[in-house]
Amino acid sequence: MPPKPFSLVTPASRGLSLALTRHLLRTTTMPVYATHRSDSEDVMKNHILDTLDVDPRRLNLIHLELTSEPSISAAADKLSQLLPPDSFLHTGFFTGGILYPEKRPSDLDASKITETFQINVISHLLLIKHFSRFLSLTQKPDIAKWVHVTARVGSISDNTRGGWYSYRSSKAALNQVVKTFDLQLQMNRSQAMCVGVHPGTVKTDLSKGFWGSERNRKLFEAEDAAAKLIEVVSRLEIGQRGKVWDWAGKEVPW
Fold first, then answer.
1. DSSP 67-90
2. Model confidence at 204, in pLDDT bands (50, 70, 90)?
3. What radius of gyration, in Å, describes the C-alpha atoms of the chain?
4. Residues facing residue 219 across a β-bridge
């Protein structure tokens, strides 16, 4: 039987992640597996498929809670059960992120710092742990893309404004995760590469408090940001692995 590629978006229920899921359904023929943590499966499926003219059987939903390793492990097992034989991950977007915009040290709160690192870093590490088994070790026509959504503010060399202590540092940590996992893929001779992507400022709940600021003159609708990221990722070549790329295809410095 020929190998069967599929796409994965986790989580996939709103904002940029929802737009990524819908764009993959609209512009590819692959089945798309998407995770969610709330609402019933039927409600979420209708939400994602709303107005799309695609075969609804291509969308498969899996419950996953980013803050729970047992939930992440169970979701990976569920995906394994759902996949037909000879399936392999072709494109995966790992999108979990949360922002508490501390402006000064007195704004720092231990519980919010912990939550930020739990979602922005630890969940990404655990998704690698439990979902990387779906990457292929055998030769395929195209190298698989394992993609973490990060942010330019995670760049240490580009930090000229300060602030956002926990978000900046968690994204810098995520960028290190991208590099480290890509090196692991190379050592394992996996037919995959890992990269990070910066979507720009997207008009979602995460960035809502900053839509009117001067530094956010480029404000993207989620659908436009998703289209740009998927285009950038599709064009990445093997020599561009292990790095962070922005919505315009430009490398983001460490």
1. T-HHHHHHHHHHHHHHSPTTEEEE
2. low
3. 18
4. 201
Residue 222 CB-density burial (10 A; 0-12 exposed, 13-18 middle, 19+ buried): buried
Angle at 104 between CA 101 and CA 109, to 5 degrees: 65
Contact between 47 and 34 under an 8 Å Cβ cutoff? The reply is: no
DSSP-derived secondary structure for 24-43: HHHH--S-EEEEESSS-HHH
Whether the bond into 11 is cis, omega within 30 of 0: yes
Q: Give the helix/strand (H/E) hosting 244.
A: strand 244-246
DSSP code per residue over 178-217 = HHHHHHHHHHTT-SEEEEEEE--EESSGGGGGGTTSGGG-
Q: What amino acid is encoded at 67 in this protein?
A: T
- Judged against a pLDDT cut of 80, whether residue 141 lies above it is answered with no
pLDDT > 70? residue 136: yes
Strand partners, 149: 197
Contacts of 4 (CB under 8 A, 6+ apart): 31, 83, 84, 85, 86, 87, 88
User: In the beta sheet, which residues pair with residue 94?
Assistant: 10, 148
Token pair of 179 as six digits: 């590099």
Find the farthest-apart pair of alpha carbons in the chain and give their distance in angstroms, rounded: 60
